[in-house]
Amino acid sequence: MAIMGTFIFEEDFLVAAKNLQSSGFNNISLLSPVPLEEAQEVLGLGKSSPVRRFSLAGAIIGAISGFAMAVGTALVFILPTGGRAIITLPPYLIITYEMTILFGVLATLLGFYFISGLPAWHDRPYLSSASIDRFVVVVKGAAADQAAKAEAIIQQAGAEEIRHVEEDE
Question: Whole-prediction pTM value?
Fold first, then answer.
């Protein structure tokens, strides 16, 4: 079961989230119509995203594969021209650069989908008013005794409305 507390004011919303976090509730979601850095701090989310590691790995793999493809093609189809070396760096940098960008972008997209949990196979508790003008705190997976405690904390913070929602498993 999930408990959803709807708040009008940002300050009350953040107080409820901090109190729930300090009371030992780990499975908390915060829904807000505007980005809030304080909400990220409450949840323990930093500013740096792990998606950047996917981007770096993709860029490195792309650079290596682009250069290897150019060198491999030159070695398979040897065209000696005017006594120049078969493998020269400047012409291969173009394909290396392009493959770096391509693999970096693709790895970034895959990393984003992986980190954000997309596609969402289960419905999550959501209120459409959280996209307009309300702040919502959701406590997921609370047992009966914990649900009462969470509800009391949310009510104490000044919630406008509290709902009990069944979760999909």
Answer: 0.67
With vertex at residue 118, the alpha carbon angle to CA 113 and CA 100, rounded to the nearest 5 degrees, is 10
- Kindly list the strands in the beta sheet with 161-165, ordered across the sheet, starting from the edge strand earlier in the chain: 28-31, 135-139, 2-7, 161-165
Q: What is the residue type of 162?
A: I
Distance from C-alpha of 84 to C-alpha of 72, rounded to nearest angstrom = 17
Each residue's pLDDT, cut to its tens digit, for the chain (169 residues) gives 888 999 999 999 999 999 999 988 888 989 999 988 888 888 877 777 889 999 999 999 999 999 999 999 999 998 888 888 888 899 999 999 999 999 999 999 999 999 888 887 777 788 888 889 999 999 988 777 788 899 999 999 999 999 888 766 5
Beta-ladder partners of 29: 138
